TrEMBL record:
This is Signal transduction histidine kinase. Residues 14-35 have a biased composition (Basic and acidic residues). It comes from Paenibacillus forsythiae. The keyword Membrane applies. The keyword Transmembrane helix applies. InterPro entries: DUF5665.
Length: 130
């Protein structure tokens, strides 16, 4: 029979290996340096995952090709402008429709005010035929 402290084997003669604790409490205590290294590793891994999620590499590639960057900005600006124009058209049409309905109700003070606004808008639309 060999001594476990000196030979590193147990009663059956097999090599003894340390296994990680199942509940996190057992096992040899970690040194403060090991804990610091583990913490740094965890933080670095977290940062790397966040950078991958933010697609920073694609952004850096885009910065190295200025013509592609300009083209993408032209396309996005055009799409944004068309979207704003369509959205404002629907919004303005809805407001004019609501004002016409309110004007048809013949409310005493509000009806006259809304009727004036509708007349002005319709007059401007008739003048500006594009």
């Amino acid at each position: 029979m060999k001594d476990n402290r000196n030979g590193g084997t147990n009663l059956s003669g097999e090599a003894k290996h340390w296994k990680p604790p199942e509940n996190g409490r057992e096992g040899p205590p970690e040194s403060p340096e090991k804990e610091k290294i583990d913490t740094i590793y965890r933080v670095a891994t977290e940062w790397a995952q966040r950078m991958e999620k933010s697609r920073i590499s694609e952004y850096l590639e885009l910065l190295h090709s200025p013509w592609r960057l300009i083209w993408l900005n032209v396309l996005s600006g055009t799409a944004r402008g068309v979207g704003i124009a369509i959205g404002f058209t629907f919004f303005a049409a809805t407001i004019i429709y609501v004002l016409q309905v309110l004007g048809a109700l013949n409310l005493p003070i509000i009806g006259d005010y809304i009727a004036d606004i509708v007349r002005i808008v319709q007059h401007q639309l008739e003048l500006n035929t594009y």
